[in-house]
Amino acid sequence: MKNSIHLLLLAFAFSMLQPATAQKAYAFPDTVKYKKNVIRWNLTPFVLWSKKNINLGYERVVSPYQSFSVNAGYFELPQFSKNLLDSLEIKNSTDRKGWTIAADYRFYFKKRNKHMAPDGLYWGPYASYHHSQFNNKIILLNQDPSVNALFGAKVNILAAGVELGYQFIIKERLSIDLIFMGPSVSLYNFNMSLGAEGNIEVDPDDEYLQAIYDILKNAVPGFENLIQEGEVTTSGSNVTMGFGLRYMIQIGYRF
Q1: Which CATH class name applies to 2-10+32-254?
Q2: Domain boundaries, the chain
Q3: What is the pLDDT of residues 221-249, one digit of tens each?
Q4: DSSP for 147-207?
């Protein structure tokens, strides 16, 4: 996983250092006054998954029709529903935390857009990394007596792909950035564990982990596409590759 991250970051570094030779025929109206920076807030994880997910971004225009941007912030998955199974009671989750980082390089369409970057339709390569972990106290009700157990999970997703988006610049300051298509290849690491508290040994039936797995598929958009059916174990780690999509709504300020 670490080697993949290093290779991905190195590839992005080389792409950002490429000289903008194709842009020599284009120049900013006034390089001193032209607003080349955008700071913004990514609303997507905040709205879809958790109100604690605060993800901020920065975009820098490097030539009239090219820019790069980075995003980073806190990231956690939503809490489980308490009605997974009749024989399983979910308590409040603890130790919920995580983080995310992403970067892209944007090529704004010269012929399609009326204005120069960062305004208009664009495409470009991107990479992202998400990490989230949590623990849940649960009660196995069909045990005699019932058993208190601890369910834990760690999720890591490394993705790289190509995106298509449109950024609206309103009155030169307000930015609304929409990424509506971003097919990617994703490297996915998923670890789940289920164990008893104290000295009671638990040999959980697969239905418990499968039920939790099904909830994750329904709660997290794109989750089912990133991991294959049946790759759920009581402990250990699974690494798979799959296809994913990127979609995002961001609001920002240009300066």
Answers
A1: mainly beta
A2: 2-10+32-254
A3: 555 544 443 334 333 445 556 566 788 99
A4: EEEEEEEEEEEEEEEEEEEEEEEETTTEEEEEEEE--EEEEEEEEEEEEESTT------HH
